[in-house]
Amino acid sequence: MFFRIFFISFSLYAITISAQPGGSGVYEFLNLPNSARVASLGGNNITIYDNDLNMPFYNPSLLNGSMNENLCLNYSMYLAGINYGYVSYARQYEPYGAFAAGMHYINYGNFKKTDETGAITGNFSAAEYNLNLIWAKPVFDSLFTVGANLKTIYSDFHDYYSTAFLLDGGLTYHNKKWLLDAAIVIKNLGYQLKPYYAGHSEPMPFDIQLGVTKKLSHAPFRFSCVIRNLLMPDMTYPVNPTDTTTASKSLFLKFSDKVLRHFIIGVEFVPTKNFFVNIGYNHQRRQELLIETRPYLTGISWGFGFKINKFRFSYGRARYHLAGATNSFSFSVNLADFYKKAENKNTVPVSDTN
Q1: Is 354 inside a domain boundary?
Q2: Angle ∠(229,36,270) on CA atoms, nearest 5
Q3: Could you tell me if 115 and 121 are in contact, meaning their C-beta atoms sit under 8 angstroms apart?
Q4: Is 94 left (phi over 0), alpha (psi -120 to 50) or beta?
Q5: Model-level pTM?
Q6: Per-position pLDDT tens, the chain of length 354
Q7: SS in 3 state form for the chain?
Q8: Total domains in the fold of the chain
């Protein structure tokens, strides 16, 4: 009941906000998958509830006490020489909840500056930054967790720059008995302090998402599904009148294609707690970027992760197009493990004098 009220109230509030398809809003780098694990699951996941500190970036209510003193580092090699990354650190402060701070950046590279005649006059670079401050706290006997993520955005494109404050809000339902997690996330609700063009505010990448994750009781598989852009029923681009392939599709195929563009599906194979293999499917990515004669693995992503001693590593590869794919790397460690080891070494056993 609480979950339903939460969803309806935020949906009604968001009616006055224009939903934006990919590419028509600013700060689209916020929608890129920072984590190698999430990249391998199709590019988004808001319901995996464990000790992975990368997950609260996608849903702040996934932040929990098991992430106390965790540190995560991420690096992704994007297309056309673009790279981006994310670093975060978390602490638990009872009874106030869990807190995390992180820095998210994207580097577009260096460019040549020219005048109207084409003469080179210098060089410049372009980058965007996002400072995250995340908070989460269990409620209702820990069946639910609420969380928020305050984002401070700075975007720099040489002569044009912009700043903004954005807010994510999340609610996660966690049922250990059923091995089930469900969540709703309100993303990028905020205000642009400094637009790129004075007096002209650009649209924010606002979104409402639902997700569910279910782990099988007697098999090492975990299935996840995310539904994005709930305020945008049609995520397809206008059909080209000369496109006979699209025009010849039945009404059922057109309708199912529009529905599936909202879904991202991922599967984790977890034979042990220290190793996993992932595969994901992003239907919208596949439909927008595939070549009809050579579709291959467009829209498919995969990856794996493992733990060695105190360190966790993961790798994700996502096929965006026949001509290119992204590679993501993640590293994480719990700093408290080093303190415990040092304390154990310094502890002098007390001898029995009796």
Answers
A1: no
A2: 100
A3: yes
A4: beta
A5: 0.87
A6: 434 434 444 343 343 344 445 556 899 999 999 999 999 999 999 999 999 999 999 999 999 999 999 999 999 999 989 999 999 999 999 999 999 999 999 999 999 998 888 899 999 999 999 999 999 999 988 899 999 999 999 999 988 999 999 999 999 999 999 999 999 999 999 999 999 998 888 999 999 999 999 999 999 999 999 999 999 988 887 655 555 555 567 888 888 999 999 999 999 999 998 999 999 999 999 998 888 888 888 999 999 999 998 999 999 999 998 888 999 999 999 999 887 765 555 554 544 433
A7: CHHHHHHHHHHHHHCCCCCCCCCCCCCHHHHCCCCHHHHHCCCCCCCCCCCCCCHHHCCHHHCCHHHCCEEEEEEEECHHHCEEEEEEEEEEECCCEEEEEEEEEEEEEEEEEECCCCCEEEEEEEEEEEEEEEEEEEECCCCEEEEEEEEEEEEEECCEEEEEEEEEEEEEEEECCCCEEEEEEEEEEEEEEECCECCECCCCCCEEEEEEEEECCCCCEEEEEEECCCCCCCCCCCCCCCCHHHHCCCHHHHHHHHHHCCEEEEEEEEEECCEEEEEEEEHHHHHHHCCCCCCCCCCEEEEEEEEECCEEEEEEEEEEECCEEEEEEEEEEECHHHHHHHHHHHCCCCCCCC
A8: 1
Instruction: For residue 149, give its domain range.
Output: 2-7+36-115+129-237+244-344
Distance set, CA 163 to CA 54, 190, 349 (Å): 24, 11, 57
Q: Is 100 a member of any domain? A: yes
Residue at token pair 């637009």: 195
Instruction: Give domain status of residue 17, yes or no.
Output: no
Please answer whether residues 276 and 304 qualify as being in contact, where contact means their C-beta atoms are separated by less than 8 angstroms. Answer: yes
Contact 45, 283 (CB under 8 A): no
Locate 205 and state its tokens. Answer: 């990448």
Nearest to 326 by CA among 334, 314, 318: 318
Does the CA dihedral 185-191-196-201 come out positive or negative? positive
159: domain CATH number is 2.40.160.40
What the block records as the tokens of 228 is 């994005």
Q: Looking at the domain assignment, is residue 12 inside a domain? A: no
Query: Whats the size of the chain, residue-wise?
Result: 354
